[in-house]
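Worked Example 4.2. Read the sequence first, then its structure tokens.
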Amino acid sequence: MSHAYDWNTRRRPRGRRSGFSLVELLLTITASSMVMATATALLHRTLFLESSSRHVLQRERAALVLARQFRNDIHLARSVECSGDPLPDGMVLLANMPGDGVIEYRRTFSGLIREERLVAGRVAREQYACPEGTRWWAVREGRVVILRGEGDESSATAPPVAIEVVAILGARVNSPEARP
């Protein structure tokens, strides 16, 4: 008697089969598709929220940089002219600096621009981005200069913006009256 296994004579017991039926395959594919669709929707929503959060943080960072620069400019300025004064169209504030320097804040469609006139006619520009339609103006009350910006509430892409920066004209940065 040989101990070799004969594949041809071996039979499977009844009721057992190999492979999957077509119905089982279709159910598996359908379930997998539903899981993938749900995962894709969640991933899309997560990326959208991350993008929105990033834009909000960028606007906040720009507002903080603007506030710091505006306060420094006003603290060092000899005199200022604000929005209510006869200024050229689009200009929010004109600061006369020591040494015949001039700094202008002008509104644009996409934000606020700070221009500093340097020696030999050179101009240094810095732009502060904010949501479209933000209205900018400056007010002077004695030595206090206030820069305000209000966003349009009808914008569907960004929440409304409200910025108010207060500075004291001619105050030194380290003086007690310049501290918040």
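Now turn to a second chain, presented in exactly the same format:
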Amino acid sequence: MIPSRWIPEKVHWRLFAIRLAADPTSYMRFVTNRRRPTGEEIPLSIRLFPEGPVTIRARTADMFTLLDLLPPTHLPPPELAPIRHVWDLGANIGLTMAHIAARHPDARIVGVEMDPENAALARRNTAAYGDRCRIVEHAVWPEEAEVGYVRGDVDEAAFRVDGDVNGHDGSATTITLNKLLEDQPPGEPVDYVKMDIEGAEQRVLRENVEWAERVRCVRVEVHQPYTVEECFDDLRRLGFEPSGEPSLWIEGRGKPVQGIRRA
């Protein structure tokens, strides 16, 4: 096998396009994304989404959220089936939500996204699944507050939250996971939580954590300075059995860690 570092970037994009695009038109739109005006909306038919096309914005981080669908590390592990209730924390433009909805037709997915433009596009990208997908426009935080955020680089697809609202790119109101749990049907667990909240995960896993008792499995993107080892310890304290696959950890990006409640 040829080492990936020896493959030109343009070839990488084309390989992803072949795997993801459902038709020749979408393939061409995919590979010419970065030659289009910034922000231009691009409809794409994607193999993973049989219910219809999704939309990304040219020359933005949207393309990287699409590439993050491969490999599908964001999906619930097969041993959790059946999947009926999912939280997508840091839903971005809704592609993970759409993928989970397509793979688990009985699942109801709540996506939490703090950026209004991303949230609006997430609603459009999940519209084909009707009321099974719902977007909550807040930032995830361990307490109700107004927090500041910093926009990430174009390839980070993220907004990093900070408790201080001063000196940042913007601010957002927060929602706690205990509050989110109030909308959960009584007695029913949250089968799967995908947590990609760009640095807020450390506090969310340590403060006001009553919600965790109702969760069967959580997948956390660990961002520096929080470490994988610290995340493992926090997940154990919450009653989860943690695991991670180092082959999926990319330098400078979030490291996926999973915790399953065995008892």
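Notes for the reader: The first helix runs from residue 9 to 20. Residues 185 and 262 are 22 Å apart (CA to CA).
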